[in-house]
Amino acid sequence: MSEYRFQVNLGGMIEILSDHLYSSPDVYIREILQNAVDAIVGRKKKEIGFSDGKILVNLVEGRELSMRDNGLGLKEEEVHQFLAIIGNSSKKDIESGKIMTDYIGRFGIGLLSCFMIADEICIKTRSVTENKSLEWIGFRDGTYTLNIMDETFPIGTQVYLKAKKGYEKYFTSETVERLILHYGILLPFEITLDNGADKKRINPVYLPWDGRNANKEELMMFGQMMFRMKFMDCVILHSEDGMVDGVAYILPYSVQPSSRQKHRIFLKNMLLTEEGENILPEWAVFTKCIINTMNLRPTASREGFYEDDLLEKARKGLGTCISDYLIDMAKYDKAAFDSFLRIHSLAVKSIAIDNDELYKLFFDYLEFHTTKGILSGQELRLSREVLIYAQSVDKYKQLAQIFFAQGKLLINTGYVYDMDLLSRMPEFYDVEIMPVNENEVDDLLKSLSIEDSELAIDFERRANQVLKVFECQAVGKRFLPSNLPTFYFVNESAVLFHQLMKAKEMSSALFSDMFSSFSAEMEHKSQSILYFNFSNSIVRNLIETKDVKIFEDFVVVFYVQALLVGGFPLRNNELSIMNDKILSIMERGLMDV
Amino acid sequence: MFDAEKWERLIQMEEHGKRRMEILKQAWMEADAEGDYRNRVYYRIEYVNDAVFYDDTMMLYVVFPEYLKLYDEYNATLGNERFTFDVMWDYKWVIGNSNQFYQISVEQMELFCKDFKSRYQLNGYSLSAYYRSRYDFYYNIDKNRASEEFEKFKEEKRGEMSNCLACDRQCMVDYYLRMQEEDEAIRYAQDLFSGVLTCHEIPALTYGSFMLLHMQKQEYEKAEEYCNKLKRCISRLRLFTELIGKILMFYSTTDPSQALDYYKKNYGWYETNKNPYYKFYFAVGASMLWKKLVENKKVIRMKLGRDFPLYEEGSMYHTIALYEHYFNEAKDIAKKFDERNGTEYFMELLECALHGNKIIQWV
Predict the structure, then answer these.
(1) Is residue B362's pLDDT more than 60?
(2) Does the structure show a pLDDT above 90 at A64?
(3) pLDDT tens, position by position, A513-540
(4) d(CA B81, CA B75)
(5) pLDDT, tens digit, for every residue of A228-237?
(6) Which residues have CB under 8 Å from B229's CB, separation 6+?
(7) Do B65 and A426 touch (CB under 8 A)?
(8) Which pLDDT score, from 0 to 100, does residue B190 have?
(9) Range in A379-393, A577-591, B48-62 the model is least confident about
């Protein structure tokens, strides 16, 4: 068997890589800036006492750019190794110490991005360990030259680029400054831009959250500048794990707890992504962050970090910063916390469910919809009543008028998180909670007088005959409001049973056996009751009527109407049955006129 | 005239879960009344999505048959590939979760599978999800048959209807754990642990699998590591799975006070959930807990809601009564599963957990 090697057209490869690997020519600045940063970081490690890293960018407006750093520089051997062999730097090199882990970028493939905007790349360099000034020029066809310069070049490296035709806009002061700040605003050393007419430092002298007492106003302005929006407030973030620092900005609008915020994340002070996701706890959806990490490991897509223990600890640390901020605000600045809650109550509820400390802290401030208006958690826990709740909004709507009319408390826990929050109350407070059930409803409805009880025996018997087909039971009671003739109540099993029966009617025979199995389990647990209000004048007339047809028609109409009011699904042509009955009642009414 | 925009706004405003499901239900009832076929199907699809991921899988079986029929009747009206895709995607969940409902007989499952397969073949979809579901279904019924289905799953090319990469990878992990090839399972799990492959349920399920593995091996420290990670995932995603019961089983084995705490937080979920498979594991965990506590404590004081079947006004509960309650519940469900499956797997599992004091394979 013979062995062959692939033939690689280097020039073609470079063209493919430089023109297609990168999303936009913008990234050429990121790549050469990254190389400069690596060189400075490398020199800091190697040379004790070196702390004055600098990057100088010279521009001939619209034509030429040079970026010079005072980092490690390259030896002749390194020039061949790093500038000329694509793919030479590897994880193995990092692990073996050939390339220090502080290097984020690599020469080689990153440098190719310069061919998007220039036909040649000229690099002048002198290593901190070799007194040789070198000039390397790389061409698009994959060839390069290397000369030893006569003059002595300062320690460090300079990349020189001349604009290709059509790419002049990437060489203007405005573009270069914008791009450098975009990728390197957090870099901790001076970056100077000199365009001949003006020479100035373009990056901040210090980070707004770093090294001194942070000024909130400054932090807010920084956030506004970075995200082009105004925030409610901000929190400084710090975690020793992963060496993470930054700021979390509180969004001024409400967001879904399941939404994902995109954070601006820097790795070793260079922008990693504007769409970072997994670095904060998921509950912190109300923040948008600027974060720098020196230690976390980015994923290949560079939009997040590897889920490892370090990330977990860092995430926990950052979460603590935000929860501490909320705790302080709740304790010491009630007004601010109220405004925060008005916007982010959903997020706060979602945090409180899973964190005992935060639950106790926030519960008092949370709001619940009840038949006694909107009550705070504090009002609920101090209430002496059993806290009865409706687990769904539909059920709440169905029962609210009865509870309201009797002055009884019913809490609507149909909204997201309210059920979870309420069900944890007995763990922390001396309260009793319970879902509304048939007994509660029965208790609310008043018993009949002795005379009415006697009347009810016959009435219920007659009504039950009519309602049998609907698997519903008639019960006579007295309740407020008296203009409400009937009140329909079903337990959860009955709701499901009805739904199953209706689904069976609507579905193909393929599912018949399955529905039969499900509904067989539900049938004996289900209970549906139509309460007739003996205080209501129509019901009173109905009790007395001897006309069987009128009686039947009214009972059916009441039943279907109660289903409609309660928002229950109708089945077995219930709606058309009701229509028939109404028409029949109307017809009789007209005949009587 | 059906106001789809109004409903869309209301739906968009809500977080996934119960409340959103209620709105979707109202929306489809109105669409039903107005004869708006597209939305009759669309809202039901959305509802089922929330039911499966945020609420109760049982509702998948209540609602899916309705819109499958609507889809069949009005396919020409609805007529686009997206609808076909969505309906067929949900059908995958129907057969994929059938193992969790003893109410679905083996014969019924075979009927589903026959119908499902012909629809997938008609649309040119990959059958990988089909074989995977059959593997899951038959795992507790007939191991050889399950292995055959697994081999077909591995051989079948992935397609647009396949489960996500993370879920399929998890299937491999579980398979090798069941085959007691731990190294292979770990190898497959690497990308799930690191977050390279992830989805709504992954890595939660992966943590769950490894928690149980280490429980079986009585390596409780390792099991606890996975348990902690798993708990975070579950609470973060409000994910309702059998893992809640399995966590309770872990704590009941290792730390009764933690178990009691976890029980008190989740007993309400057990009462309302309708998935018997999920309930089974919780009932086993609760039986294990109360059996342990019976030995030292006859009566325990704790606040439970009035809807709890054994509710006591004075908040004093007899541990033996609690044990018997959950044991009977677990036994009842186990018998029904075993009856459906023609095996004794679930009863054995219950007996081993409670009396043999060991965890048999159940990943």
Answers:
(1) no
(2) yes
(3) 999 999 988 877 777 899 999 999 999 9
(4) 10
(5) 899 999 999 9
(6) A312, B203, B207
(7) no
(8) 92
(9) A577-591
Residue B304 backbone phi and psi in degrees, to 5: -120, 160
Distance from CA of A581 to the nearest CA of B (A): 20
* Amino acid at site A547: D
Shortest CA gap A394–chain B (Å)? 8
Torsion of CA B34, A396, A439, B327, to 10 degrees: 90
- DSSP code for A479: -
Nearest chain B residue to A438, by CA: B307
One-letter amino acid of B211:
M
* DSSP labels, A538-568: HHHHHHH---HHHHHHHHHHHHHHHHHHHTP
**Pairwise CB contact (< 8 Å): B15 & A507:** no
**A437: closest chain B residue by CA:** B307
Distance CA B72, CA B88 (A): 11
Which chain A residues contact residue B57 at CB under 8 A?
Answer: none
Cβ(A257)–Cβ(A421) below 8 Å: no
Contact B18 A427 (CB under 8 A): no
Stated pTM of the model: 0.70
Q: What is the mean pLDDT of chain B?
A: 90
**Beta-carbon separation of B66 and A419 below 8 A:** no
CB atoms within 10 A of CB A410: 24
A252 pLDDT higher than 90? yes
Task: Supply φ then ψ for residue A208, to 5 degrees.
Answer: -60, -25
Nearest residue in chain A measured CA to CA from B267: A423
Please judge whether A507 and B62 are an interchain contact, meaning their C-beta atoms are less than 8 angstroms apart. Answer: no
Nearest to A518 among B14, B61, B72 (CB): B61
DSSP A57-91: EEEETTTEEEEEE-S----HHHIIIIIHSTT---H
Pull the structure tokens for residue B324: 């018997």
User: What b/e sequence results for A576-589 when a residue is b if at least 16 CB atoms lie within 10 Å of its CB, and e otherwise?
Assistant: ebbeebbebeeeee
Chain A residue nearest residue B44, CA to CA? A503
**CA atoms of A316 and A309, how far apart (whole Å):** 10
How confident is the model over A420-435, as pLDDT tens digits? 899 889 889 989 888 8
B173 Cβ contact list (under 8 Å, min separation 6) = B185, B188, B189, B192, B206, B209
Question: How many interchain CB pairs under 8 A, A with B?
Answer: 114
Contact A508 B69 (CB under 8 A): yes
Number of Cβ atoms within 10 Å of the Cβ of A431: 17
Q: Give dist(CA A263, CA A130) in Å, integer.
A: 42
For residue A258, the chain B residues in CB contact (below 8 A) are 15-16
- State whether A427 and B69 contact (CB < 8 Å): no
Q: Report the complex ipTM.
A: 0.89
